[in-house]
Design goal:
Length: 154
Amino acid sequence: MIYMYFPWNLIQVSISVSTFAFFKLKVINEFLLITQSKRRETMNEEHNTRLSATVDRLLSESNERLQQHLKERMQTLEDKNQLTQELEKIQKLLEQVQSEKSHLIEELAQTRRELIALSKQESRFVQIARRLLIVNLYILLAERKLKSYIISYR
């Protein structure tokens, strides 16, 4: 309280009343500020709660998508490994078939050479057989002629 030394008490009372009113206004103002701060704090807490819920939901959705993507990648990797194994088996089979093919081609070439040799031999045998037939025919003819000569000489 502010005391002024005037001869009248009235001034002192009016100053006291205005000081009291001032402090009352100050208290009301502080109360309003505190109320407003509490309201802001409540709004901030609600906002933080909503943000936290949104972040949790987004993290959950992101985690689900990542899990799904991981499952897809794992399945793709399994498929790739399975295809790689099948490809290796097919490559081994192909190598075996190619090896058999070259072996068969080699055998075929050998068989052809043998057939050519046999046909040449057969051709020689046929020629020899023809000559023998011709010789036999000449012999038969000669025998007949000889018989006819013998018969005619008798």
